[in-house]
Amino acid sequence: MTAVERVQAFLPDETSAALITSDVNRRYLSGFTSSAGAVLVTKTRAILLLDFRYFEAAQKSVQPPIEVMRMQRMTENINNIIPSENIKTILIEDDSITLAVFRQLDEALSAQVIAGGLSEKLSEIRMVKTPDEIEKIITAQRITERAYTEVLNLLRPGVTEREIAVELEHLIHVYGGERVAFDLICITGANTSLPHGVPGERVVRDGDFFTFDIGAVYDGYHSDMTRTVAVGHASDEMRMIYETVLEAHKKAQRAIRAGVPAAEVDAAARDHIAMCGYGDYFGHSTGHGVGLEIHEAPAVSGRCGTILSDGMVITDEPGIYLPGRFGVRIEDMFLVKGDEAVDLAEIPKELTII
Ligand code: ZN
Ligand code: ZN
Predict the structure, then answer these.
(1) Using an 8 Å Cβ cutoff, are 353 and 341 in contact?
(2) How far apart are CA 214 and CA 330, in angstroms?
(3) Alpha helices in the chain (DSSP H)
(4) Which end of the chain lies in a sparser environment, N or C, as judged by fewer CB atoms within 10 Å?
């Protein structure tokens, strides 16, 4: 079933429709990227409404069964469709629509506007990737890996976090990334204990850990990888923490397979770190889905009820963070494929000393 057919199957009856207005879900359903517009899905039709700026381009590229319609004013266009399709209720994206927009739609549309379950359904549909989506995620990862491998040549005592981050971002563009997947995390020394540290003027010193949490976007799809490397040398304690995190990462990896709750993958990493005495220093979830958004369903956390299935792409990213001292995180994306967790990264995970 295509994504549109799955939305159609979700519609409760012949007189209901779904109105998709968020950029990411509009793009997911139509394949067309725009900063405005809507997809109206009825039991039998899927109509992409776009204004003058996008209409011509969409007419050339959007494929049937999606119809492209020139949008003047969205609510007026939809009100013109409502009688001919006998639409009584319109489901909206309850997770992304503001209360102000909800009120406006509720007032202007001649069908009943309902907030209930559409966002959750769309994120559930998006969890399972098609082969084409997986290829794009892998391409984004290869771009990141090429940039990372090259930037390691610049990592030495005396350079700043910002210099490394700027060069990495530049190389991601050079190698075909349309943009970086998120604000790149390139941090050194004591800053590595900050899971989401921001690159600044801190200078790399001999004996530092340096953490890269990096990714690229290729044709809308994201990649996500974290490596922690040592500069010059690593103390026994740094090596021990690194090995603990690496073992937690591998235990989570071994837990990933179709039919397993995502919460079990989280527990595999968390239990190992707790058993080694560092449970208080691993304060985030083990991973997340990746796709058109850098963080999407499923959450790989203790609270997530999702059962893993074929085609899901999730990260495995445990870490240990010792405040004011240093931190280690190791992250890769895995594709769920039967009993296997296919590692989408090709960069070794063993401790690298630059
Ligand atoms: Zn990451
Ligand atoms: Zn991540």
Answers:
(1) no
(2) 11
(3) 3-10, 23-30, 52-61, 74-85, 99-108, 118-127, 131-151, 161-174, 236-255, 262-275
(4) N
Instruction: List the shell of residues around ion ligand 2, using CB closer than 5 Å.
Output: 224, 315
| Confidence at residue 103, expressed as pLDDT on a 0 to 100 scale | 95
Going by C-alpha positions, the residue among 342, 338, 339 that lies closest to residue 314 is 342
Residue 289 has pLDDT above 90, yes or no: yes
DSSP 36-87: S-EEEE-SS-EEEEE-HHHHHHHHHHPPTTEEEEE-SSHHHHHHHHHHHHT-
Q: Are 298 and 314 in contact (CB under 8 A)?
A: yes
**Which pLDDT tens digit goes with each residue over 45-73?**
999 999 999 999 999 999 999 999 999 99
Tokens read off for 106: 């509720």
pLDDT in tens, 236-255: 999 999 999 999 999 999 99
Ligand in closest contact with the CA of 290:
2
pTM here is: 0.95
Q: Which amino acid is at 168?
A: L
Closest to 327 measured CA to CA, from 198, 203, 196: 196
Ligand showing the shortest atom-to-Cα distance for residue 144: 1
Return the ligand number nearest the Cα of 228: 1
Q: DSSP letter at 195?
A: T
Residue 33 CB: number of other CB atoms within 10 A? Answer: 15
Residue 1 confidence (pLDDT) above 90: no
Task: Give Rg (Cα) of the chain.
Answer: 23
Tell me the CA–centroid distance for residue 289 and ligand 1, in Å.
11
| pLDDT, tens digit (0-9, with 9 covering 90-100), for 312-324 | 999 999 999 999 9
